[in-house]
Inverse folding.
């Protein structure tokens, strides 16, 4: 690819210009939540299976044991991570969690964010999941 095409591609995809080390550092701080061209280039995606394993490690429990437990924040943590680090749609997340409606998925993610403001343990778990997903 010529230098001109390479530069044009970087600008078109919204990537950071500069040394590769600098670009990687900046890309790691960019959060893209809206669907648009070039979103895949900005963040590394995690599969649903990877996210489940990370949350299981952080929570110290298997997914099957907390998936359907009423009031447990584990499922909502997986939904949040799946949306944030997996780039999965609400519909996909609902299907992967056993047929949950997409509006319930959205509410679970919102509830997790609200609860994390007052719950240190939950906030710490979210930080751990974010750290492992970003690796």
């Amino acid at each position: 690819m010529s230098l001109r095409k390479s530069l044009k591609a970087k600008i078109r995809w919204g990537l950071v210009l500069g040394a590769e080390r600098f670009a990687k550092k900046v890309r790691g701080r960019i959060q893209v939540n809206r669907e648009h061209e070039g979103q895949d280039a900005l963040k590394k995606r995690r599969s649903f299976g990877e996210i489940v394993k990370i949350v299981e490690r952080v929570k110290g429990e298997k997914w099957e044991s907390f998936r359907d437990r009423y009031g447990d924040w584990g499922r909502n943590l997986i939904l949040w991570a799946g949306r944030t680090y997996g780039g999965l749609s609400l519909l996909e997340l609902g299907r992967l969690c056993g047929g949950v409606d997409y509006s319930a998925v959205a509410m679970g993610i919102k509830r997790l964010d609200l609860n994390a403001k007052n719950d240190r343990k939950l906030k710490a778990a979210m930080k751990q999941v974010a750290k492992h997903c970003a690796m």
The two ends are 29 Å apart (CA to CA). Residues 3-42 form one domain. The chain has nine helices and no strands. Residues 76 and 108 are 5 Å apart (CA to CA).
